[in-house]
Amino acid sequence: MTEHKVVVIGAGMAGLVSALQLAQQGLSVTVVDKAEQAGGKVRQIMVNGAGVDSGPTVFTMRWVFDHIMASIGTRLENELRIKPLNILARHFWEDGSQLDLYADPHASYNAVVQFAGRSEADRFAQFCKTTREVYDALEGPFIRSPSPTMAQMMTSLGPRGLATLASVGPMRSLWHSLGKHFTDPRLRQLFARYATYCGSSPWEAPATLMLIAQVEMDGVWAVEGGMHALAQCLMRLGQARGVRYLFNSECERIELTQGRVSGVRLRSGDSLHADSVVFNGDIAALRTGLLGPGVKNAVSGRVQPRSLSAITWSMHAPTSGVSLDRHNVFFRSNYASEFESVFQQGRLPAQPTVYVCAQDRGTGETVDGPERLLCLVNAPANGDKRGFTPQELADCTNSSQDLLARCGLSLQLEPSSSCIRTTPQDFNQLFPATGGALYGQATHGWMAAFARSNAKAQVPGLYLAGGSVHPGPGVPMAAMSGQLAAAALMANLGLTKSSRPAATSGGTLTH
Ligand SMILES: Cc1cc2nc3c(=O)[nH]c(=O)nc-3n(C[C@H](O)[C@H](O)[C@H](O)COP(=O)(O)OP(=O)(O)OC[C@H]3O[C@@H](n4cnc5c(N)ncnc54)[C@H](O)[C@@H]3O)c2cc1C
Questions:
Q1: How far is the CA of 126 from the centre of ligand 1 (A)?
Q2: What is the pLDDT of residues 78-125, one digit of tens each?
């Protein structure tokens, strides 16, 4: 057992995975987090006695977790109960139309035939083929690469990958590219929404982000006990390997000795010695000096605009009207105005899209009475600059509720004992220096994905992990960044080879 001591700042997905993997390798690991419990954005809020998942709800890329579990000698099925969902998501429009996308590509094709006709369904099938190719081209050279550069990616893509990228027009926006695939505006809108999975606008995100649609089409799972159970599981596995977790413990300084990381100082005044530190907060906190002057310039990569924040309503309430599935999206006809409001004007959207996660549905159970819900609308990440007025919040709430009602769903979003609202200001307090941005930096423009820092900071002994560094936001991606940080640390110590996530296998739509 080596005496190398590691402090991981943050028990978000990446921090939990880093800690687990480092402890598995025999290092002495302490995780400190300012929050009361593990998970970071993967958090659960108690509403009227019911635990409501109030962060991520869509669990994809399970192969990432299969690989993490295999690396510590277990299997995901042994640690967590997870079920694949038949319906990936249910989509509603205010004109009364509705479309389900399924895990079974043929069922999705048939649903699109019913929804928009056979020609459009054929275009959908072609789109699926393209997203498969884009995903396959980029998974190795970008997603699983520890530190991709444009030049290195171009070399690794090979002629076929380059041809795939050229065909989607990577310099174009996702919105522009989708206009070439679909003639039905509703399908263009539906697939444009995937840009928001990494907190970006479809009008500014590169066309290559269509690969996020592929991630979802490769499967969505429901975790028994909620996403929160995933965080608990990672913590339990870490504890079994000796990781020490200190909650309600904010780190206010990363200490350096002779230019090298030597420990952390907590708000309580306590200091912890560390030979290495993994920082799982947003890199904006380092850049703004929140962790001390010694690490202010520790992050490489370009500064990009902040990603989306959100207003969320965590609820335990009955629903009536339309039949919800687990993941539901309610669209309006004017999509562009939402992103203009948020990114150009820094305002709450007057016409938001509304996402509703009905957490008791989708896995065969019958719902009777109050159910656990998370409703979400996109919002600007300016929670550190201004608070929204009660009137602005009320307007956004009413507009969201009106949309749901026009689509047939009756639901009260007013804050009450059965409905707890979280705003960008609240998210900014939970995740310092972010303004409430939930996905790190926005992926705006073709080069944005390369602007993210890799796991190695510019200060010896400091490593970075989380949604604000490569490969980017989302539960599986953040988990991968945790693996990459652990691997970089171990490689630096010369103790082990880097462990990169294994390749996935996905299905292709053929009909
Ligand atoms: C409402 C919402 C919905 C989302 N939906 C999805 C989804 O459906 N699917 C999906 O894959 N992803 C989704 N995401 C994104 C996903 O949750 C995140 O990308 C991912 O969980 C981020 O993990 P992370 O490792 O970056 O850590 P974070 O979750 O950002 O956690 C960082 C931790 O560090 C701690 N910390 C920070 N600074 C300090 C300090 N100085 N001292 C001590 N502790 C500190 C914080 O308290 C926090 O616990 C969603 C996020 C939100 C908020």
A1: 34
A2: 999 999 999 999 999 999 999 999 999 999 999 999 999 999 999 999
Does the beta carbon of 8 sit less than 6 angstroms from any atom of ligand 1?
no
Structure tokens at 340: 């203009």
Sheet holding 260-266, edge to edge: 251-257, 260-266, 271-273
Domain locations in the chain?
5-45+56-82+225-302+443-493, 104-217, 305-430
Instruction: Report the separation in Å between the CA atom of 361 and the middle of ligand 1, taken as the mean of its atom positions.
Output: 24
Output the CATH code of domain 5-45+56-82+225-302+443-493: 3.50.50.60
Residue 266 CA, closest ligand 1 atom number: 42
* Partners of residue 306 on adjacent β-strands: 441
Tens of pLDDT, residues 287-338: 999 999 999 999 987 889 999 999 999 999 999 999 999 999 999 999 999 9
Sign of CA dihedral 455, 459, 462, 464: negative
Which residue puts its alpha carbon closest to atom 38 of ligand 1?
281
The C-alpha atoms of residue 435 and residue 381 are separated, in whole angstroms, by 5
422 lines ligand 1 (CB under 6 A): no
Whether residue 307 has its Cβ less than 6 Å from ligand 1:
no
